[in-house]
Design a protein that fits this description.
heterodimer; A: alpha/beta; FAD/NAD(P)-binding domain; Immunoglobulin-like; 3 domains; five-stranded parallel β-sheet; 8 helices; B: alpha+beta; N-terminal domain of TfIIb; CPE0013-like fold; 2 domains; five-stranded mixed β-sheet; three-stranded antiparallel β-sheet; 3 helices; 10 strands; binds flavin-adenine dinucleotide; binds iron/sulfur cluster
Chain lengths: 418, 132
């Protein structure tokens, strides 16, 4: 078996992996990126729509352009990128981490490193995850798979489409399918409000007169060999109105029902997972419970903007390199999710530095207030003109705000929305 | 008769109601800030969209097709927003293209489309390694 040694390895060559590798390289560490696809860029390669890079590059780019611009930065460094190489198993317990990998070109490889950055991204929830009853015909795809088929591989999965779930990927695909000549008959959402951005509702549905059925449950997929239709049922005041069910004929169903961080590898290796994010618990250095193992991007928690992914990944790279030099926080405080907050990432803060926390709200609200309390004392309050679960929020907490953390043995920083 | 629009300039998404005044101007209400008025004017009087799609590839210049991985079409987009009523014409022109490889990101594929000043550009580089 071929054996290789690096100071640091990054698993996954998407936006997160590339951005963290750039920082590890800058810190003088020998660094490898391990990517199972034939090219770098991750999910960006299939996101051909506009809307990437306003923060990072100050212009609105498509996904492939964003990826290529980051790749160009990478090409100018000493980072070694392996593509077509899948990481199969991690052994993380000892000081030297070992990764067992497989590639068509190299066969089985053992790669060793002093630190590992997890950047495996996420995958889509599928029909099994949301349990739609009915037949099992051909023609049911996740929206992201359909996006890959249409945008990269050049196949159109069907002609008459119904999209289940109003997440942004589904909305983007509604426009894309319309633009390749398909008819999108409906988007069906179980919640009373859409889970995607208003911008996408307007430009991807309203532009094409695609009806959006809110508070509707998909009760059946119909079809023997190929999808013939979906049965949907309105929900009124919490009750499923069976007698009001109706069928929308179609030959293709796209599911846009959420993303889950890809943590099978991490779990097998003993990384502790936060049930609220399905990503690892991370401390103020974005380090998991295993010393020397860091996480960033969609594998840590699902992001909606690639610019935030890059920002977070850069910090992971900087912290990881600093950890290897022997730096670690002197004191840390737990972050507790208060009222109306689903999660925060990371879940710890360091009172000696500037911390950036990402969080998601559980509610939709105008004129909301985001409040930070330390041991029940208010230390920061931020006005938000509008919040919704699909838009990630950020909070900066610096040494001044966190000063009182040092006064108690087990300080709790609580973040709440009202 | 008033028309309804949702302002998409910021995430609040105000529901705007718009009256068309006799002299061709618009009276906008429901906006929480002046940007809503600007949005309503653009969207009702001169709506525009950025178009992104994919184009077919002409492989004749490429010896090692396998270096393209599974990429069967090249992503392209307009470099600025194009009048909404002409979007289908832009799409038809994109679908009629056969893009010769290798190609560099940003290369203009359709220049100054119908005199609009808007170009269609390649949204990624492809086949450059195969040439090297
Ligand atoms: C469909 C869609 C539309 C989006 N639209 C927008 C938008 O309009 N604007 C915006 O700013 N953001 C958008 N985003 C969000 C943003 O693009 C992503 O959050 C970001 O690109 C994720 O980067 P990542 O590196 O964390 O994950 P990914 O890009 O998923 O990268 C993870 C990589 O890890 C690799 N990998 C996984 N496991 C292994 C393994 N075992 N061995 C080797 N390699 C492995 C995968 O192959 C993949 O390449 C969108 C996201 C999606 C999914
Ligand atoms: S009118 Fe102003 S506040 Fe309302 S959505 Fe538009 S930009 Fe936002």
């Amino acid at each position: 078996m071929k054996e290789l040694y690096f100071d640091s390895v990054v698993i996954g060559g998407g936006a997160a992996g590339m951005a963290s590798a750039l920082e590890l390289d800058k810190a003088g560490l020998s660094t490898a990126i391990l990517e199972r696809e034939e090219c770098l860029g991750g999910i960006l390669g299939q996101c051909i729509h506009n809307g990437f890079g306003l923060i990072e590059f100050n212009e609105e780019l498509s996904g492939p352009e964003f990826a290529e611009k980051v790749e160009e930065r990478l090409a100018a460094t000493g980072v070694r990128a392996f593509t077509g190489l899948t990481v199969m198993e991690l052994q993380l317990a000892s000081e030297l981490k070992t990764l067992y990998c497989y590639s068509g070109q190299h066969g089985v490889l053992r790669i060793n490193a002093k630190l590992v950055v997890l950047a495996m991204g996420c995958r889509e929830r599928n029909r099994g995850n949301i349990r739609i009853p009915g037949d099992r015909p051909a023609g049911v795809y996740t929206a992201g798979l359909a996006q890959r088929l249409v945008n990269i591989e050049g196949y159109i999965p069907g002609k008459d489409v119904v999209i289940i779930g109003s997440g942004d990927i589904g909305l983007i695909m509604a426009r894309r399918m319309s633009w390749v000549g398909c008819k999108v008959h409906a988007v069906v959402e179980i919640l009373p409000y859409p889970s995607g951005l208003t911008r996408n509702i307007v430009q991807c549905l309203n532009d094409f007169d695609i009806p959006l059925y809110l508070s509707h449950l998909t009760t059946r997929i119909i079809g023997r060999k190929r999808v013939e239709g979906v049965e949907i049922t309105p929900i009124e005041s919490g009750a499923i109105m069976t007698e009001k069910a109706f069928v929308i004929p179609c030959d293709t169903v796209l599911l846009s029902v959420g993303l889950v961080p890809e943590n099978e590898l991490s779990k097998m290796a003993g990384v502790e997972i936060n049930p609220m994010t399905n990503g690892p618990f991370a401390d103020s250095m974005l380090m998991t419970n295993i010393p020397g193992v860091f996480a960033c991007g969609n594998v840590l928690h699902v992001h909606d903007l690639v610019d935030y992914v890059v920002e977070e990944a850069r910090r992971a790279g900087i912290y990881a390199a600093s950890w290897l030099k022997g730096n670690s926080p002197k004191a840390e405080a737990r972050v507790k999710t208060g009222a109306n907050v689903r999660y925060t990432a990371p879940s710890r803060v360091d009172p000696d530095k500037n911390n950036k926390l990402y969080l998601r709200s559980l509610i939709v609200k105008n004129d909301a207030q985001l409040e930070v309390r330390i041991n029940n004392r208010l230390v920061k309050s931020i006005k938000k003109t509008h919040i919704q679960p699909s838009e990630m929020l950020t909070v900066d907490l610096g040494p001044k705000e966190l000063e009182s953390v040092k006064d108690s043995p087990d300080p709790v920083v609580e973040i709440a929305i009202s | 008769m008033s028309e309804e629009l949702i302002c998409i300039t910021c995430p609040i998404g105000c529901h705007l109601s718009i009256e068309r005044l006799p002299e061709g101007k618009l009276a906008v209400s429901g906006n929480r800030c002046p940007r809503g008025i600007k949005y309503a004017n653009e969207e009702l009087l001169n709506p525009k969209r950025v178009v992104s799609a994919t184009a077919a590839i002409d492989y004749s210049g490429i010896e090692h097709e396998e270096s393209l991985a599974e990429i069967a079409r090249i992503p392209v987009r307009t470099d600025a927003a194009y009048p909404k009523e002409g979007v289908n014409e832009v799409l038809a022109a994109i679908y009629a293209l056969k893009v010769k490889l290798p190609i560099k990101r940003g290369t203009i594929l359709l220049a100054d489309f119908k005199g609009s000043g808007v170009n269609v550009i390649a949204a990624r580089s492809l086949g450059l390694e195969a040439l090297a």
